[in-house]
Design a protein that fits this description.
By secondary structure, the chain is an alpha+beta fold. Helix content is 36%, strand content 27%. The structure holds D-MYO-inositol-1-phosphate (IPD) and calcium ion.
Length: 261
């Protein structure tokens, strides 16, 4: 399965590297973009994954019309995570895939075509980067490097909810970054490059693959209440090393309660 997924992701990755004649459209608002490449990537992945596992349903960020039956396997795919990075040619985006059953990711991969990094995890079997096992870091909170996602949602509300967390990390950690791709940020936590990632409103295709990879790498992935994030709708996200997660969770819980979301 790993080899077949890598091959399919490499094929689609070639298309993303070409990146010519981009047609950009707005989705829900002026900050939410989709390009023709997102759609072409999704269609190529749909075809390739149907050849790998014909019985599985397919849900993609740009087409969620399929309805998996209870117990049926389904692919949950983000054909380009980091669409705005892609539009700006920042060369920091990825293809993210989870194979799920009843809302649980059983297997996941994240592929960055710009540097060939392929993250892969299977439930209970650990996580790898290009075939080598990976693990979250053992850094203390004060030595940690955090990252934050700006996410969906009304921008003033987003600032209100993220600012205290950004401030806490900026004051007490080594640093805080914003890479514009949730899935690669999650994989960087799994690989021990980053130590934590925080976002206040994020969709399942942006975190289910990365969350499995983090858990299989020894990290913790919950929403701001400390529960498993929703497998079907928008939720908050707090992931990291056990130390990072434990330190930030009370702040996240307080913010969630005081902002009432
Ligand atoms: C977005 C990116 C971004 C995160 C947003 C996601 P997209 O995904 O991962 O970093 O903050 O929540 O929606 O739209 O580029 O696939
Ligand atoms: Ca996307």
């Amino acid at each position: 399965m790993r080899r077949a997924l890598l091959k399919a992701n490499e094929e689609v990755g070639k298309l993303l590297l070409e990146r010519h004649s981009l047609q950009i459209k707005q989705k829900s608002d002026m900050f939410d973009l989709v390009t023709d490449m997102d759609l072409r990537s999704q269609e190529m992945l749909r075809d390739a994954y149907a050849r790998i596992l014909p019985e599985a349903a397919f849900l993609g960020e740009e087409d969620m019309s399929d309805t998996p039956a209870p117990g049926q396997l389904y692919w949950l795919v983000d054909p380009i995570d980091g669409t705005k990075n892609f539009v700006h040619d920042l060369q920091l985006s990825c293809i993210a895939t989870a194979l799920c059953q009843d809302g649980e990711a059983l297997l996941a991969c994240v592929y960055n075509p710009w540097n060939g990094e392929f993250y892969f995890a299977e439930k209970g079997k650990g996580a790898t980067l290009n075939g080598e096992p990976i693990h979250v870091s053992s850094r203390s909170f004060q030595d940690s490097m955090a990252a934050i996602g700006q996410g969906y949602g009304e921008r003033h509300e987003t600032v209100q909810r993220l600012k205290p967390l950004w401030e806490h990390c900026f004051v007490h950690c080594r640093g805080i970054r914003a890479f514009g791709t949730a899935e690669l940020s999650l994989c960087y936590v799994a690989a021990g490059r980053l130590d934590g990632y925080i976002e206040q409103a994020i969709m399942p295709w942006d975190y289910l693959p990365g969350n499995l990879i983090i858990r299989e790498a020894g990290g913790v992935a919950t929403n701001w209440k400390g529960e498993l994030p929703s497998p079907t709708g928008m939720d908050s996200l707090l992931v990291g090393t056990p130390d990072f997660h434990q330190t930030m969770l009370p702040l996240c819980k307080n913010l969630q309660a005081s902002c009432g979301f």
